[in-house]
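Figure 3 (text version): structure tokens given as input.
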């Protein structure tokens, strides 16, 4: 038992370091830039540290994997090879270098590490501790970038918002476990930064996560369920109050004092919060591509070189890449795995599933690409682990 816990702790540390890579790079780059200037050394050190931790836990991780994980890895590898073969234009391959790197981090490391987890309580403990560190890292990085480096936010807002979202969701999770002024302060500060400097998508993802977390119960308890519904109603009333025109003007004034215009607040003030930044045009173009090749699609990353970017929606991306039939089969399989995770008897596993369902799946309906989304692949790995555990438990009961 002691050896098992030691192995699970090793895997949990690798898992938590993996999801912390982007925030770590963000914070360390911000800290080192004023001191030693722009250099890739700090980023290389962060990724090298991860590889060292991964190598240290390699045997426990590999021994935990099953044939389904290897099947998905083979499927992804074949698609990468086909994508490279079809994209014979060197310029296109060069443009997709970062895309392929993100697939490597997600579809390989994310899937493998996620699928290797078997003790969800150990992982939950480490995740809750990690989110505290993430909050500190993101706030330090934010303050340096905003007030020392004075960067132009522009397109940086989106990745920053989702990195901060990891910490914000974690702080709420910690608050649900046990009320703490420390977590409450970090949660409020993160929300404020998110609202003023972030984008709209992460706020929606956070709302979904909060609702899911409040509805998840360890045991069916009427009192707890009523309390959760009451908390959701209070939260909705708070949102309605926040959306009051005068309150929005106040928030806009506060953000102006920081020298920033909040895009989210601006959209709310002009009743244009649902403005899609041209995503409707992308959707129309994607539908045209699907209609042209509904049977087999165009292959991995085809939306990049046919539309100039990804489709910003997991369903249309699957249909463009694989066609309607195979795309629908893959989507149904993903939903099936997620439901396995959400309804598993281990409460910690359900909570972890809800966390990565929000950040790794919900966001894919209006942002990012599933191929490159690390948290999506972690979610798939975790749910494969849960499904396998459920199957093994049933076999043991029969014996």
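Below: residues designed for each position.
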């Amino acid at each position: 038992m002691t050896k098992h816990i030691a192995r699970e702790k090793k895997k949990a540390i690798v898992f938590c370091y993996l999801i912390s890579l982007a925030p770590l790079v963000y914070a360390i780059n911000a800290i080192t830039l004023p001191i030693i200037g722009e250099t890739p050394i700090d980023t290389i050190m962060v990724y090298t540290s991860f590889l060292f931790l991964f190598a240290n836990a390699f045997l426990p991780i590999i021994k935990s994997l099953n044939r389904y994980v290897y099947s998905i890895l083979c499927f992804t590898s074949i698609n990468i090879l086909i994508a490279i073969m079809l994209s014979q234009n060197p310029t296109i391959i060069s443009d997709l270098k970062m895309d392929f790197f993100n697939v490597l981090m997600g579809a390989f490391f994310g899937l493998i590490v996620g699928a290797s987890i078997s003790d969800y309580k150990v992982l939950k403990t480490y995740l809750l501790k990690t989110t505290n560190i993430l909050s500190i890292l993101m706030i330090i990085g934010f303050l340096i970038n905003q007030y020392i480096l004075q960067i132009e936010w522009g397109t940086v807002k989106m990745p920053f918002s989702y990195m901060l979202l990891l910490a914000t969701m974690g702080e709420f999770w910690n608050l649900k476990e046990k009320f703490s002024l420390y977590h409450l302060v970090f949660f409020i500060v993160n929300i404020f930064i998110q609202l003023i400097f972030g984008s709209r998508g992460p706020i929606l993802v956070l709302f979904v996560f909060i609702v899911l977390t409040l509805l998840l119960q360890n045991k069916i308890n009427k009192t707890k369920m009523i309390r959760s519904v009451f908390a959701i109603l209070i939260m909705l009333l708070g949102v309605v109050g926040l959306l009051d025109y005068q309150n929005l003007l106040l928030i806009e004034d506060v953000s102006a004092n920081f020298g920033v215009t909040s895009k989210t607040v601006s959209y709310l003030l002009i009743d244009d919060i649902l403005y899609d930044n041209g995503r409707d045009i992308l959707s129309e173009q994607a539908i045209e591509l699907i209609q042209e090749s509904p049977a087999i699609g165009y292959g991995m990353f085809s939306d990049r070189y046919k539309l100039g970017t990804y489709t910003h929606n997991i369903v249309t991306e699957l249909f463009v890449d694989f066609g309607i039939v195979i795309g629908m089969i893959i989507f149904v399989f993903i939903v099936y795995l997620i439901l396995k995770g959400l309804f598993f008897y281990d409460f910690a596993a359900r909570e972890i599933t809800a966390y990565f369902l929000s950040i790794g799946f919900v966001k894919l309906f209006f942002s990012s690409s599933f191929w490159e989304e690390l948290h999506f692949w972690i979610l798939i790995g975790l749910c494969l682990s849960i499904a396998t555990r459920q199957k093994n438990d049933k076999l043991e009961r029969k014996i």
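Residues 2-242+276-398 form one domain.
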